[in-house]
Design a protein that fits this description.
The chain is an alpha+beta fold. The chain contains five helices and five strands. It folds into two domains: 76 residues, Beta-grasp domain (Ubiquitin-like (UB roll), Roll), CATH 3.10.20; 70 residues, DNA polymerase, domain 1. A hairpin with a 2-residue loop joins strand 1 and strand 2.
């Protein structure tokens, strides 16, 4: 077992960790940092439940070895919004009824945030493409697509 010392900025706070070279980012976030909004669905990068934003890119945390991330910046669902209120994307998900069981919601919100950070007025086909890596068994996706459109409007009007 080989260990590495890393510094990782998660949701704006630096963490200095000693990690195994084979340890996944998903496991460090959930088990060490107690950021349980990051979910493990498939463990193979197919479902999007473990989606996070790493150095500005949307990625599946189940596929990344944390030892490679010294100096990196991570945003999880816990870093979206503020203590005194929800982020406009989270508000839109609630208003559009896009949250049912909630398992996929953190990954969907982060994928939506990544999209809206890059495209302020996405068309439905762009939304579908951006969320295509995130699976949902409950909603049928239409309410989620509407939520992203609503969030885009909220962010533009802010």
């Amino acid at each position: 077992m080989s260990l590495s010392k890393i510094a990782l900025k998660v949701n704006g706070l630096w963490h200095h960790l000693e990690v195994e070279d084979s340890e996944r980012l998903l496991d460090v976030l959930r088990n060490r940092l107690r950021l349980v909004g990051v979910k493990e669905g498939c463990g193979t990068g197919e479902c999007g439940a473990c989606s996070i934003i790493l150095n500005g890119e949307l990625v599946n945390s189940c596929l990344i070895f944390v030892a490679q991330l010294d100096g990196s910046e991570v945003l999880t669902i816990e870093g979206v919004g503020k203590l005194d209120g929800l982020h406009p994307i989270q508000e839109a998900f609630l208003e559009a009824g896009a949250v049912q069981c909630g398992f996929c919601t953190p990954g969907m919100v982060l994928a939506s945030k990544w999209l809206l950070d890059h495209h302020s007025n996405p068309q439905e086909d762009e939304i579908r493409e951006a969320l295509s890596g995130n699976l949902c068994r409950c909603t049928g996706y239409q309410k989620i697509f509407r939520a992203v459109q609503l969030a885009a409007t909220k962010l533009r009007d802010a």
